[in-house]
Amino acid sequence: MPGDDATVMALAFCRLRMRKLKQTMASIELSENHRRSISITLQLLDEALCEWTDWSEGRVKSGVMYRELDTLSPNQKSELRSKIGATRQLIIRLRDDLDLQLRDVATSRSIAGHASLLWEMLTELNSRGLSGYGTVPEELEGYLDPIGETLTEQISSITAMLSQARETAT
């Protein structure tokens, strides 16, 4: 496969460098601020790798207004999985060597966070919000405003439902 030799060589070189670094690891003192900053960066990277792993395995999302298209070739998918694996090995090394903490993300909290952002955008999905782009036709106002309000209420009810579930779980 194209690039396999280069990837193997890069991994071998990286492992050799990491062995040297491992020997001096005990001498590195890390403040909590540094540890937190490194952890957050690696958590965000790992989150992206999770999504890329899904794509490399052909898993794509599809909704009524959003659709991901699988445009990766079999070779690209294979190479992507290989690079993801190599990247995760480095993340594991850093996690273990620097005693970084895994971040557990509750799906309810993640949904509620996204819902809050979406709620804010949906409150502008009406004639008032669109007036900044020019005069809004009355027909659009009468059609869009009630639907925008209903969408906002739906998202609010999702947030409320997840908040209640979280309160009863604690």
Written description of the protein model:
The protein is mainly alpha-helical and 170 residues long. The protein folds into two domains: 4-97, no CATH class; 107-169. It is 72% helix and 0% strand. Helix 1 packs parallel to helix 3 (74-97), helix 2 (32-56) packs antiparallel against helix 3 (74-97) and helix 4 packs antiparallel against helix 6. The longest helix has 32 residues, at 138-169. The protein is extended, with a radius of gyration of 23 Å.
Task: Name its key features.
single chain, 2 domains, mainly alpha, 0% strand
Distance, first to last CA: 51 Å
- Structural class estimated from helices and strands: mainly alpha
Q: What's the main sheet like?
A: none
Low-confidence stretches: none
Work out the count of structural domains. Answer: 2
User: Please, how many helices?
Assistant: 6
Task: Write the H/E string, N to C.
Answer: HHHHHH
Strand content: under 5%
Q: Which whole number gives the mean pLDDT?
A: 88
Query: How would the global form be characterised?
Result: extended
What's the count of strands? 0
Radius of gyration over all CA atoms, rounded: 23 Å
Q: Please bin the fraction of helical residues.
A: over 70%
